[in-house]
Amino acid sequence: MRAAFYSEYGDTDVLQVGELPDPVTGPDGLVVRVAAAGVNPVDWKLRAGYLDGAFPSHFPTVPGWDVAGTVEAVGPAVTSFAVGDRVLGYARKDHVQHGTTAELVRVAERHVARLPDGVDLVAAAAVPLAGLTALQAIEAAGVGEGDTVLVHAAAGGVGAFAVQLARLRGARVVGTASDGNHDFLRSIGAVPVTYGDGLADRVRAAADGSPVTAALDFVGGDEAVEVSFELVADPSRVVTVTDGAAMLQRGGRYVFVRPDAAQLATLAGLVADGSLRVEVSRTFPLEQVADAHTLSASGHGRGKVVVTV
């Protein structure tokens, strides 16, 4: 199969595209023919070696954990899928090596959901990691009807999903973003505020007198953490995806996204019925995977970057 891969840690120049062996299903796995693979910050952080020691990793490494495509083969113990099914999956494995920026990828049956008719495969590839992170953070914070939720980095890949999912649960949302993304946040149901000094006061004004009852941190850094704890009375409703140890010491919650097929199916259904908008900022062909990593690492733009295969 043709795949993007790297054989050492480094900058984007270590990425190459070439031939690797086809994957096998295993007893409880699917081989998916990849149509598109979402790009997430973890992909380039792993490639750069920043997470060496955090995950068991092996070379050559095919990056990518998000996938959308068509089932090519199924293992003998697989009962929920058949060859030809359109699926999306969060293909994170215990060891980092066999990722999704390739023509074929093996994914465990328990990490995959069927993709409803009418959902574009490129849009679907943008959903798994970011959508699951947003949903699991919202559940950790107990977001529901009547809440006022502060979402940090609300225009990013995870934040945009969190805004919409919180709104679907009946919450009011205040979201931080650069000025250029304020119209986008309004379009998905958030009241936008700009980062920087005086953030807590701007959030209070945007909440229009309602207390902020939960905060979701998808950016990290002292400002987001301090403002969240200043505004939210119950520290257990402050959730981060960044510095887990520091957050837990202060009584907050840490979310490290986990694969969940049922939640993936829920997200896919919301996309299919139009309740959840998927914002794809740009797509790149497999041969330009280095450019996709560069754009993701820049932190600019909004929504998700996707590689098409």
Q: Largest beta sheet, briefly?
A: 7 strands, mixed
Q: Determine the fraction of residues in helical runs and give it as a percent range.
A: 25-40%
Structural class label: alpha/beta
What is the arithmetic mean of pLDDT? 96
Number of helices: 10
> What is the CA–CA distance across the termini?
11 Å
Total count of domains = 2
How many extended strands? 17
Secondary-structure element order, N to C: EEEHEEEEEEHHEHEHEHEHEHEHEHE
Beta-strand percentage?
Answer: 25-35%
The radius of gyration over CA amounts to 19 Å
Please identify the top-level CATH class of the largest domain.
Alpha Beta
Tell me the overall shape: globular
Question: What fold name goes in the CATH topology slot of the largest domain?
Answer: Quinone Oxidoreductase, Chain A, domain 1
At the fourth level of CATH, the homologous superfamily of the largest domain is Medium-chain alcohol dehydrogenases, catalytic domain
Short description:
The protein is of the alpha/beta class and 309 residues long. Helix content is 29%, strand content 27%.
What does this structure look like?
49% of the residues are buried. The protein has helices spanning 41-48, 121-125, 128-141, 157-168, 182-187, 199-206, 222-231, 244-249, 261-272, 289-298, and strands spanning 2-5, 16-19, 29-39, 57-62, 66-74, 86-90, 96-98, 104-108, 112-114, 148-152, 172-176, 191-193, 214-217, 238-240, 253-254, 280-285, 304-308. It is α/β, with parallel strands linked by helices. The chain has two domains: 2-127 and 278-308, Alpha-Beta Complex (Quinone Oxidoreductase, Chain A, domain 1); 130-254, Rossmann fold. Strands 3, 5, 6, 8, 9, 16 and 17 form a seven-stranded mixed beta sheet that branches.
